[in-house]
Write a structure and sequence with these properties.
Elements: H1 9-27, H2 31-38, H3 44-50, H4 57-67, H5 72-88, E1 110-121, E2 125-136, E3 144-150, H6 158-167, H7 172-175, E4 178-181, E5 184-185, E6 188-193, E7 197-203, E8 205-206, E9 209-210, E10 218-228, E11 235-239, E12 246-254, E13 259-266, E14 273-274, E15 280-284, E16 287-295, E17 302-309
Helix pairs in contact: 1-4, 1-5, 4-5
């Protein structure tokens, strides 16, 4: 049984709209520009993201291709279509004896009690470390957790970005992905592997045994990976895809680069606006460290932090996104 089997039509429609908005922001395209690139009326994308229009296969296909979303938008369309058919077809109802496994979807059994991201930059490489406290609120053990890695040097120019990553694809070797849970190494399996987009299952097991997350339990997991600054630029975005109780971000840059930071918040119903509170700042062992946090962020909210290095103005500012 697929994870989307228990998602309602309303949830699936909201997920689809959020997916389109997410990839549009990754590529740096205004709604009007995206609509024109797709061959639609300038207001069509706005209506789709706000839920005034229902998802269609034609829109999903064009959006996925235009935004180079690695089939992520198309998968959301399939989830929506499955939910719609199930709602109108009694035979498609999920049997009560077989609860759906939903390791990474709205309405799933996972609640993120604490989400902490730390991004360290050494002048050429970014290393992201994610720590999440997960709670299983469902009725079945959870055996895997889905993460995404997506980068984009030229979000406003999909053709240029595609050409760049065809020549310089993001590789597993350079990512150096590691993951642990309760001190145990977590195996991982690639779900999707494209030049600039990866989806990975983190598994609650290894060669020595299994350690599933049982109903009612909470556990910290930690995973980390690396990307060079030629493939990931000066912004970092957090998308809230599961119920989350606390979210925090720490960014550390060499103080000699004289970094400055700002951020925006976007929801499904509102355009980007300044973060509701200013990021903190401190100097620490030659690094300038910025921190920002929020409690109970809304589902599908996106928090985007951007920076520039005043001591390195001559460098081209590529754009990238990592989650």
């Amino acid at each position: 049984m697929d994870a989307h089997d228990a998602v309602t039509v309303e949830q699936a429609s909201a997920n689809f709209a959020a997916e389109v908005a997410y990839w549009r922001e990754v590529r740096g395209l205004p709604k009007k520009v995206l609509a024109e690139l797709m061959g639609f009326h300038p207001s069509y994308v706005s209506h789709m993201e706000s839920g005034r229009h229902k998802p269609t296969a034609d829109f999903a296909r064009r959006a996925d291709e235009t935004l180079n979303a690695g089939k992520a938008i198309w998968r959301r369309w399939n989830e929506y279509e499955t939910a719609r058919v199930r709602q109108t077809t009694a035979a498609a109802a999920v049997p009560a004896s077989r609860p759906a496994e939903q390791p990474y979807a709205t309405g799933s059994a996972i609640v993120v009690e604490h989400d902490a991201a730390r991004l360290d930059y050494d002048g050429s490489l970014y290393r992201l470390t994610m720590r999440r406290l997960l709670r299983n609120t469902g009725t079945a053990p959870i055996t895997r957790y889905l993460i995404r890695i997506s980068v984009d040097c030229y979000p406003g120019d999909p053709e240029r970005s595609n050409a760049h990553y065809r020549a310089h694809p993001l590789t597993w070797d350079e990512l150096e992905l590691t993951a642990t849970c309760r001190g145990e190494v977590m195996r991982w399996e690639a779900k999707h592997d494209r030049d600039a987009f990866k989806e990975v299952w983190l598994l609650f097991d290894n060669d020595q045994g299994r350690f599933p997350l049982y109903p009612g339990d909470s556990v910290w997991i930690e995973y980390a990976y690396t990307v060079s600054d030629t493939k990931w630029g000066r912004w970092f975005q957090r998308a809230v895809r599961l119920p989350t109780e606390h979210l925090e971000v720490t960014l550390a840059f060499p103080a000699t680069l004289d970094p400055v930071l700002w951020g925006t918040e976007t929801s499904m119903t509102a355009e980007a606006s300044p973060l509701p509170s200013a990021p903190g700042r401190r100097e620490e062992d030659g690094m300038r460290v910025f921190t920002w946090s929020t409690g109970h962020p809304a589902l599908h909210a996106r928090y985007r932090l951007e920076w520039r290095f005043r001591a390195r103005p001559e460098q081209n500012v590529n754009q990238g996104e990592f989650r």
